[in-house]
Amino acid sequence: MNxxxxxxxxxxxxxxxxxxxxxxxxxxxxxxxxxxxxxxxGCLIKIQLGDERGLxxxxxxxxxxxxxxxxxxxxxEDREESLAGQVSEFERIAGGGVHxxxxxLDSMEGLVVTANVLIEGFRDLxxxxxxxxxx
Length: 135
Fold this sequence. Notes:
Layout: E1 14-15, E2 22-23, H1 26-33, H2 52-94, H3 98-125, H4 127-134
Antiparallel strand pairs: 1-2
């Protein structure tokens, strides 16, 4: 049941200790009692006028939606913490932020270009010596 609370099956239904009403289906029990044991029973929710059962059902739907959004928010917070850790690790490895890394990469690219020019120059000047060094 993917971690969801369900009222245990009851042959004769579930009777509310507050209003003494008996509910014979899971749906009607969940509407009255809520999805979890910590929910406030519908009979204790003060409703002055109108369709109490319909309002109870709406309240339970909204409670479920609140729980869904709460879980999404917790997952988003976890993801944000994970990403912040990754950014910190990147900055530690890179020795600074994006700007510093970009400067380092530009400098390294310049060194690679210079090294390639020197290698080509040595190859042209003395191919024998080049072969000894490069192997």
